[in-house]
From TrEMBL:
Gene3D superfamilies: Jelly Rolls, Leucine-rich Repeat Variant, MFS general substrate transporter like domains. It comes from the Bacteria. This is HEAT repeat domain-containing protein. InterPro entries: ARM-like (IPR011989), ARM-type_fold (IPR016024), cNMP-bd_dom (IPR000595), cNMP-bd_dom_sf (IPR018490), MFS_trans_sf (IPR036259), RmlC-like_jellyroll (IPR014710).
Length: 1010
């Protein structure tokens, strides 16, 4: 079923909730319906439904107020307890009636309303719990199991009701429901405490500290707005009609079922037993349906699924009407009711949500809630009012059934028109929601090739809006139907490269003729390399024309773009063109040898084809000076499972940037079980960054039991190992080296975070990943109360108790201060020279050498690496970067000295570098409209200029000239700066602020000159 370890752990706690609640819900429903129908009268069922529809808005308002006043976990617990209380009170009253031999007829409407409230709210509570406690993807994996658990509970309840109803009576069936609810509550409370409470730490604090006065409500659109918009939209009117008529038909069949059953079984115990049997059959059908429902949805699509449901409703009511007065009547109406219930609540309800996916996201919920409110009340009222025709004696049950057939027929017509209106609405929405619509369209239209909606997409291939055409092409492409090929070939001459790409992706060449292939091959000469590469991929799939495809692709091995060559090599291997393997090898060697972007695609080619003969060559690319090449090489090594590279990759981790560290970690994961022995050798490594990389990779590769055996003890020991690193900043402060002390303090914090990060990575495998992520964020929160609450959750032993307590101790060490030095500062510096961290060793050595030669700074002409790091730390643009990241920048920054009056930038000339002033001054100036030169400002040490034009190499808008003697600067090339901005967005924000300040200076200068 695709379940993972964390899924299984959560299932063991949550399945009992769904199982016991499923039993309780079905027992409650079966019993109160039998009691109401027998003791109050099934003819009054429409009245009670009408009254219920009237009070539902009040119910929703009260629950919303309760949700606003209580923390989420407490709200859910309170609601569950309210439902247990209602069932328990009703059960006690019913048992009292039975024991005392008394009855009070007008109690049963109260029983109906309160019990049906439990049925509605318990279902909503269970599904909201599942989605709140599980991330989206996990919820998708686990939902079939939750549904199976609930339906199994329904089957169990049906069998219990069938037996207990006969033996002990309907009151005993009802009284058993709260007992089962209590059993479910035990697991419900544990699940909330373990998974939901940590997720809502911040929200709970916000609720506790909010003001007594109600917050100012955000401006919301009135309900009238949505009503007007729906009246103007045929599609939305059709959707609301479908959502209204479907429950109306269901309520009509429900009335037929209860009325026919009461007539067939006049004895209350027999009636309850029959209800129980139908419930068991009903949920057995539901369980069987769940095994194929996903495939049905993918094949039919939501639109066709809804149409199919309406056809089943029409057929079921038709059979009921034909056989109602015959011996088979009770079986027809019971079977129809059971199927209608499952199709409505388990299949149709999720499909409805696609109606609103095309609405603007800011208004989507407004449309959804308004439509669902109208449909819920309207469906109940229509079904109830039509059923009243029988209650009033105006129609017999059989003519009422034929009336139900007529309503079901209208429902089929509405579903058919709604299915056709969908495509038109899809195109109307395309500009605002293009990114999501192709997936929505695929979900709604489905995979049936003959679908009229899919054929209608052809009409939009000539639409003037490129977004509409691109969407139509995406939907056509998902059908994988070669019948559309002639239409797509006709679009070869499109001007937009995006459309040409979409055309190629929509094509299916299976069954294409040689003439078709020749026409498609014209894309191989397209000016856009993306289009050429996509064409190569497409032609490689024409396996029935293998020799012709090979001919066209072989030529592209000489293309001037590496991506096209990359796709060409892969295509020839896919076609198994052995005669071209040597040419492919030459192309791969060319890519790896050319370096840069060619080498990146060369690594991708080797990785995708698993060409192990190139492993040594790829390994050598880890020494390339270009970061993108190193990242691609690391990815390739992982795909090749070249475990001999693990030690070398681990030694790269401490000095690697974020992107490279992620690539190395992913490489270890890609190596799989083969990497375990090598990685386990590093679980006690002294360097926290290397330890972190090894432990994080092992946490991904090992299952839970192996993690507990092989990783927990080494992790705990490594985290609790005594360390003297924190003494170094204090020693440097005592020696008066404040800059070095700040740098050492930051480095110690980074080492500490590496240990903490490794611990959290392991913890995430023993507990819910989302809970761990939220808890980690809470331990770093600004609020003391949030941090304390997070530490309290950790102290309870989240996941693994030993690991949680060790992590807690590590976090407490982080909060402790280290202001005093217990031993001589010089001795600490001497000891630090032998520590495992290179930066702390360099800082200690630098400090000792500075003490030995006081005049060293004056004699040194150029900055050392550490000097650059200390300087960069003082520049506001880079103040928030780690020491490793500062080291990376220092490594690519070139120190330059320029004489007085030297021009570093000239207005109108292209610039490819950013400058950071170390010493000296630079004047920024510009020309006025009259040709005069005006000074914008004078920059001094730790200030930057040239950053905006360096990013794109554009001409400089200002002139920068050295003044007042020589200037020393650090120069960063634009290519390096662009990558820094991509990796560290905070640098980009800093550059934006600096540019804005420069613009303000320029504006002020122009105003003064004016």
């Amino acid at each position: 079923m695709g379940l993972r370890t964390e899924d299984m752990r959560k299932l063991w706690m949550m399945l009992p909730i769904f199982y016991f609640s499923g039993i309780a819900e079905s027992l409650n429903y079966t019993a109160f319906m039998a009691l109401f129908n027998q003791r109050f009268g099934v003819q009054y069922l429409p009245y009670i439904y009408i009254f219920e529809a009237a009070i539902m808005p009040l119910e929703g308002w009260l629950l919303a107020k309760l949700a606003n006043r209580l923390p989420k976990a407490k709200m859910m617990t309170t609601l569950y307890l309210i439902m247990i209380g209602l069932l328990a009170v009703n059960g006690a009253v019913l048992l009292g009636f039975k024991a005392g031999g008394i009855d009070f007829r007008y109690y049963y409407p109260i029983l109906f309303l309160s019990s049906n409230f439990v049925v509605r709210q318990l279902t909503l509570l269970l599904w909201s719990t599942a989605f709140d406690l599980c991330p989206t993807q996990q919820a998708k994996r686990m939902m079939p199991v939750f549904i199976a658990s609930t339906t199994t509970g329904g089957i169990t309840a049906g069998l219990l009701a069938h037996q207990i109803g006969k033996l002990l009576g309907t009151e005993a069936v009802y009284a058993l429901a709260p007992v089962l609810m209590v059993l479910g509550f035990v697991f419900f409370r544990k699940a909330l405490a373990r998974y939901l409470v940590p997720l809502t730490l911040k929200e709970d604090i916000r609720l506790k500290t909010q003001r007594v006065a109600e917050p100012k409500e955000e401006t919301q659109l009135p309900a009238g707005y949505y009503a007007k918009q729906m009246l103007r939209s045929p599609f939305l009117l059709c959707a609301v009609a479908l959502m209204t008529l479907m429950p109306a038909v269901y309520f009509m069949i429900e009335y037929q079922y209860f009325t026919a059953a009461e007539a067939k079984f006049p004895v209350e115990g027999d009636l309850t037993s029959f209800y129980g049997l139908i419930t068991a059959i009903q949920f057995t059908f539901c369980l069987l349906l769940q095994t194929v429902s996903t495939r049905l949805m993918n094949w039919l699509g939501a639109s066709n699924m809804l149409l199919a449901i309406t056809v089943v409703f029409f057929g079921g009511f038709g059979l009921t009407a034909m056989f109602l007065n015959q011996s088979l009547g009770i079986f027809m109406v019971s079977g129809s009711y059971a199927i209608f219930y499952i199709l409505l609540y388990y299949i149709a309800e999720p499909c409805y949500q696609l109606f609103f996916k095309m609405m603007p996201i800011s208004k989507r919920d407004g449309y959804r809630y308004f439509a669902q409110g109208v449909a819920a009340s309207g469906g109940i009222l229509i079904g109830s009012l039509l059923s009243l025709l029988h209650s009033f004696g105006l129609l017999q049950l059989s003519p009422l059934a034929w009336l139900g057939v007529a309503v079901a027929a209208i429902l089929v017509v509405v579903a058919w028109f709604g299915r056709n209106l969908y495509v038109r609405e899809l195109v109307k929405s395309v500009q605002s929601l293009h990114a999501d619509l192709s997936e929505i369209a695929g979900s709604f239209i489905g995979g049936i090739r003959s679908s009229k909606a899919l054929s209608a997409m052809l009409g939009y291939l000539k639409h003037p809006n490129d977004y509409v055409r691109e969407l139509a092409l995406e939907v056509i492409g998902k059908a994988k139907d070669s019948a559309f090929l002639p239409h797509l070939i006709g679009m070869i001459g499109e001007e937009s490269s995006r459309i040409r790409l979409a055309v190629l992706r929509a094509m299916n060449l299976q069954g294409a003729t040689i003439q078709d292939l020749v026409q498609v091959a014209s894309f191989l000469e397209d000016e856009d390399p993306e289009v050429r590469a996509e064409c190569v991929k497409l032609i490689s799939k024409a396996t029935h024309l293998r020799s012709q495809s090979h001919f066209f692709i072989r030529v592209k091995l000489l293309d001037n773009h590496p991506k096209v060559v990359h796709e060409g090599v892969k295509a020839l291997y896919a076609l198994e063109s052995e005669e071209s393997y040597q040419a492919c090898d030459e192309a791969i060697i060319k890519m790896l040898d050319n370096g840069g972007e060619w080498a990146v695609y060369g690594c991708h080619t080797v990785a995708d084809l698993k060409l192990h003969t190139y492993a040594a060559w790829v390994l050598s690319l880890l020494d390339d000076h270009r970061p993108a090449v190193k990242v691609a090489a690391a990815h390739c090594i992982g795909q090749l499972q070249h475990i001999e590279a693990i030690p070398f990759l681990l030694t790269m981790v401490p000095l690697a940037d974020q992107e490279m560290r992620k690539a190395i970690l992913q490489a270890f994961v890609d190596m799989g079980e083969k990497a375990l022995p090598a990685l386990l050798a590093y679980v006690n490594h002294a360097n926290p960054f290397i330890w972190n990389a090894a432990v994080t990779a092992l946490a991904e590769l090992l299952d839970e039991s192996m993690l507990r055996k092989q990783l927990v003890d080494p992790c705990v020991a490594r985290m609790l190992a005594s360390t003297q690193e924190r003494a170094l900043p204090a020693a440097l402060n005592e020696l008066g080296m404040k800059g070095l002390a700040e740098l050492a303090d930051q480095r110690c914090a980074e080492l500490h975070q590496a240990l903490v990060g490794g611990a959290w990575a392991v913890m995430a495998k023993f507990a819910d990943e989302r809970v761990v992520a939220t808890l980690r964020e809470a331990t770093e929160d600004e609020s003391d109360e949030v941090r304390d609450n997070a530490l309290e959750v950790l102290a309870e032993g989240l996941g693994d108790r030993r690991l949680a307590l060790a992590l807690l101790e590590l976090l407490k060490q982080d909060a402790a201060t280290h202001s005093s030095v217990k031993q001589e500062p010089l001795l600490i510096l001497q000891e630090a020279k032998s520590w495992s961290d290179d930066w702390l060793k360099d800082i200690a050595s630098y400090a000792l050498s500075s003490l030995e030669r006081v005049d060293m700074r004056e004699e040194r002409k150029f900055l050392t690496m550490l000097d650059k790091v200390i300087f960069l730390k003082q520049v506001s643009l880079f103040a928030d970067l780690s020491v490793d990241e500062l080291g990376l920048i220092a490594g690519i920054a070139t120190e330059e000295v320029h004489e007085d009056l030297t021009y570093l930038l000239r207005r109108g000339q292209s610039n490819a570098a950013m400058y950071l002033i170390i010493e000296g001054n630079v004047e920024l100036s510009n020309e006025t409209g009259e040709g005069e030169t005006g000074t914008i400002g004078v920059l001094g040490p730790k200030q930057a200029f040239g950053e905006t034009t360096a990013l794109d190499g554009s001409p400089s808008s200002i002139t920068a000239q050295v003044i007042f003697d020589e200037v020393r600067v650090l120069m960063l090339q634009g290519e390096s700066l662009s990558r820094l901005v991509r990796l560290y967005p905070e640098i980009g924000i800093g550059l934006l602020h600096a540019s804005s300040a420069r613009v303000r200076l320029l504006e002020n200068m122009l105003l003064k000159m004016a």
